[in-house]
């Protein structure tokens, strides 16, 4: 009898999972409580995959032999609870797709920096001629690629939500950049639950696999001591020499892997700031574990273009540099952003606060920020915290007004930095929309 697979969520990952399930002979039904994008409706019809939108038909879903759940659906919703009570296996698209490929998997996670690291790793390996796919929390659906393409390697950006439903997922190389409080509303406001989710990435690794991690992360160090996983460790450090791994010394990225040393001047790279030194060292470490030629690595590092909304220079107007870091949706990201500049900063921050603790950036703000523009519907927490620390504070719900006020305060050699520390949903569709509106507002200054 044909097994029934139900896909919950009809976005990129859900439709990809449906296509893979159909190609493997399952009876497939896709259900989304929201409205499906026209493009996905067209694809599902073309593939003759049954689906529903703007509802969940409970009886049909509970009749599944396997459920592939969108990462955006929390485990606490009644439908998921009911499925668990019936002992129906629930997996993520990542878990489902990994079971149908023999490609070698490089999986990258962290509270911050994972997109840049994933893109850079993919760029280095693709530039070296590897047959490689890019997927996970970025790019085309992993399952879709497994169903329709042939790759020898995949570089996957993995979020904690995707790691919540992992059973057998087994990357050959994992990268764990950092773990700082984020998405705590999803994890019962218990940081340890979020940490556990991130560490799911190594749960199936063996002593033949590699874990690349940032040595200065106290959370990661504590967990490694507690868990003592049987995996080969590759350390990355900004402060210390590493025996097997990479470190930053006098502006040079130095990597020692398998007894061989690689060096590159960090200043020659198109990405800046200490957080990007960590990201670059992680990508270099992956490339070197896969025996990529040194010259190819250097070539790839210099030709890399980062994704938008990550310390993206928008314009330099009258000597003032306007920087879009809209992706900085938590305090840790802002810490790294402020650490990337030596010039005085006018900071634009605010939005939906996710339980932020601003103590982490207090000293940097005190030393670097000459003005704070609070952009958002609930400015009280930011204003209260930084009153008396920042010389001038301005509140607004209008991004053009925010940029104009920052421009009014700025002088030659200053940086106007949008690095919000908060989610964007009070005033914008998402962080991309916020970043795009910021860029448009900056460009309006010169018209």
Automatic annotation (TrEMBL):
Binding-site positions, ATP: 110-116
Catalysed reactions, as listed in the record: UDP-N-acetyl-alpha-D-muramoyl-L-alanine + D-glutamate + ATP = UDP-N-acetyl-alpha-D-muramoyl-L-alanyl-D-glutamate + ADP + phosphate + H(+)
Domain (Mur ligase C-terminal): residue spans on this chain: 309-422
Entry-linked InterPro entries: Mur-like_cat_sf, Mur_ligase_C, Mur_ligase_C_dom_sf, Mur_ligase_cen, MurD
Listed Pfam families: Mur_ligase_C, Mur_ligase_M, MurD_N
EC number: 6.3.2.9
Pathway: Cell wall biogenesis; peptidoglycan biosynthesis
Domain of life of the native organism: Bacteria
Localization per Swiss-Prot or TrEMBL: Cytoplasm
Chief place of localization: cytoplasm
Domain Mur ligase central: 108-287
SUPFAM superfamilies membership: MurCD N-terminal domain (SSF51984), MurD-like peptide ligases, catalytic domain (SSF53623), MurD-like peptide ligases, peptide-binding domain (SSF53244)
Keywords for the protein's UniProt record, in alphabetical order: ATP-binding, Cell cycle, Cell division, Cell shape, Cell wall biogenesis/degradation, Cytoplasm, Ligase, Nucleotide-binding, Peptidoglycan synthesis
Transmembrane segments: none
Class of this enzyme: ligase
GO molecular function: UDP-N-acetylmuramoylalanine-D-glutamate ligase activity
Similarity field: Belongs to the MurCDEF family.
Reported function: Cell wall formation. Catalyzes the addition of glutamate to the nucleotide precursor UDP-N-acetylmuramoyl-L-alanine (UMA).
Stated name of the protein: UDP-N-acetylmuramoylalanine--D-glutamate ligase
Organism: Dyadobacter linearis
Gene: murD
């Amino acid at each position: 009898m044909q097994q029934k697979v139900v896909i919950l969520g009809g976005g990129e990952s859900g439709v990809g999972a449906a296509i893979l399930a159909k190609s493997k002979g399952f009876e497939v039904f896709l259900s989304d409580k929201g409205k499906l994008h026209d493009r996905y409706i067209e694809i599902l019809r073309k593939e003759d995959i049954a689906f529903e939108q703007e509802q969940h038909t409970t009886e049909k879903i509970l009749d599944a032999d396997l459920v592939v759940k969108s990462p955006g659906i929390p485990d606490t919703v009644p439908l998921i609870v009911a499925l668990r009570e019936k002992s129906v296996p629930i997996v993520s698209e990542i878990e489902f797709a990994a079971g149908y490929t023999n490609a070698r998997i490089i999986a990258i996670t962290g509270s911050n920096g994972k997109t840049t690291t994933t893109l850079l790793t993919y760029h280095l390996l693709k530039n070296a001629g590897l047959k490689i796919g890019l997927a996970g929390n970025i790019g085309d659906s992993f399952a879709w690629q497994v169903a329709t393409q042939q790759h020898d390697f995949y570089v996957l950006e993995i979020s904690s939500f995707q790691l919540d439903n992992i059973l057998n997922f087994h990357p050959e190389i994992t990268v764990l950049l950092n773990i700082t409080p984020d998405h705590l509303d999803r994890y019962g406001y218990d940081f340890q639950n979020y940490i556990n989710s991130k560490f799911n990435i190594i749960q199936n690794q063996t002593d033949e696999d590699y874990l690349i991690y940032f040595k200065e992360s106290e959370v990661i160090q504590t967990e490694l001591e507690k868990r003592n996983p049987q995996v080969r460790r590759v350390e990355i450090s900004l402060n210390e020499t590493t025996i097997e791994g990479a470190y930053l010394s006098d502006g040079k990225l130095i990597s020692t892997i398998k007894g061989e040393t690689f060096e590159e001047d960090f200043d020659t790279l198109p990405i800046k700031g200490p957080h990007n030194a960590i990201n670059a060292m992680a990508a270099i470490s992956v490339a070197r574990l896969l025996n990529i030629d040194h010259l190819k690595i250097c070539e790839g590092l210099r030709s890399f273009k980062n994704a938008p909304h990550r310390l993206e220079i928008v314009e330099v107007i009258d000597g003032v540099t306007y920087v879009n870091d809209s992706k900085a949706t938590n305090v840790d990201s802002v810490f790294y952003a402020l650490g990337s500049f030596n010039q005085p900063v006018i900071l634009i921050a605010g939005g939906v606060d996710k339980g932020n603790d601003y103590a982490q950036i207090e000293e940097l703000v005190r030393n670097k920020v000459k003005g704070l523009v609070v952009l958002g519907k609930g400015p009280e927490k930011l204003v209260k915290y930084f009153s008396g620390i920042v010389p001038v504070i301005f509140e607004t719900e209008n991004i053009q007004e925010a940029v104009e006020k920052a421009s009014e305060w700025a002088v030659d050699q200053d940086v106007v930095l949008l690095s919000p520390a908060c989610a964007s949903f009070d005033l914008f569709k998402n962080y991309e929309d916020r970043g795009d509106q910021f860029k448009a507002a900056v460009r309006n200054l010169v018209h």
